[in-house]
């Protein structure tokens, strides 16, 4: 239920999964929400204004932000959720494919952030939430390039938060683990598969599918995004869901060798 007017929120990748749930949660909480999708006419939660936006295109990003500002005059919250996954051995992807992945998951975040920061700076107020992942702070076999994009987002967000904090703007990371979405069904396949990785890749695909089925719901991640957006005592990182919270603690306190062994056991890789 909407309780107050919390300002204007812009959520990328809001037509499905975590983005859809986040747009709905923010709308229900009292934000006026604009949600983006690459597809014109994509379904959005009730009350959310749909915008067409390709985060890999500078002009498309600029137009989406201009449309929001023309309507409401301000952007108080940006949720950088749009992203894609790539599953396979790191060696199985060309540099061109890796660049394409980074263009969405990293440079897309940078494009959106650069587009909203001038308005946030002028009003000396704003919050930017970047969707990272547990793969942003732990190893991710057969998701090496995807994990690299999330590690990049972690470093970018931590540094940016220090730069803009004195301007009234804060940056936060939301870090889900496996989430019950169609993520595994939409994974990009490497552009040159190698026989050497076939058996391990098949085993890992089964693990990922199983973990997603029992993972956190998009609504749990959305609730974490809402908490990060409205927290009166802002933090840098917000793990989303029980598994993400547990892994975050273990990564900090368990010795590296023990963590490495536990990770390989969980992923059914030879210890």
TrEMBL record:
Segments forming a coiled coil: none
| Domain Ketoreductase stretches | 7-180
Q: Which Pfam families match?
A: adh_short (PF00106)
UniProt-listed InterPro entries: KR_dom, NAD(P)-bd_dom_sf, SDR_fam, SDR_oxidoreductase
Keyword tags: Oxidoreductase
A molecular-function term among this protein's GO annotations:
oxidoreductase activity
Indicate the family of this protein: Belongs to the short-chain dehydrogenases/reductases (SDR) family.
Official protein name in the record:
Short-chain dehydrogenase
State the organism named in the record: Roseibium suaedae
């Amino acid at each position: 239920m909407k309780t107050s007017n919390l300002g204007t929120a812009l959520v990328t990748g809001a037509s499905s999964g975590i983005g859809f749930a986040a747009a709905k949660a923010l709308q229900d909480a009292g934000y006026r929400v604009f949600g983006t999708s690459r597809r014109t006419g994509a379904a959005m939660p009730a009350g959310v204004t749909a915008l067409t936006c390709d985060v890999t295109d500078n002009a498309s990003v600029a137009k989406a932000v201009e449309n929001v500002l023309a309507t409401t005059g301000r952007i108080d919250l940006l949720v950088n959720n749009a992203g894609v996954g790539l599953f396979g051995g790191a060696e199985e992807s060309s540099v061109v494919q890796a660049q394409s992945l980074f263009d969405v998951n990293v440079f897309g975040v940078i494009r959106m952030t650069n587009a909203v920061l001038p308005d946030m700076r002028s009003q000396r107020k704003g919050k930017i939430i970047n969707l990272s992942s547990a793969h942003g702070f732990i190893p991710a076999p057969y998701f090496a390039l995807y994990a690299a994009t999330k590690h990049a987002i972690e470093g970018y967000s931590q540094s940016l938060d220090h730069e803009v904090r004195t301007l009234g703007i804060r940056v936060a990371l939301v870090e889900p683990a496996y989430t019950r979405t169609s993520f595994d069904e939409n994974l990009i396949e490497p552009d040159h598969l190698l026989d050497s990785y076939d058996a391990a890749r098949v085993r890992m695909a089964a693990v990922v599918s199983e973990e997603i089925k029992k993972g956190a719901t998009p609504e749990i991640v959305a609730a974490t995004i809402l908490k990060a957006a409205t927290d009166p005592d802002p933090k840098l990182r917000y793990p989303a869901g029980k598994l993400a919270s547990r892994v975050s603690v273990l990564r900090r306190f368990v010795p590296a060798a023990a963590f490495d062994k536990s990770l390989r056991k969980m992923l059914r890789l030879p210890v």
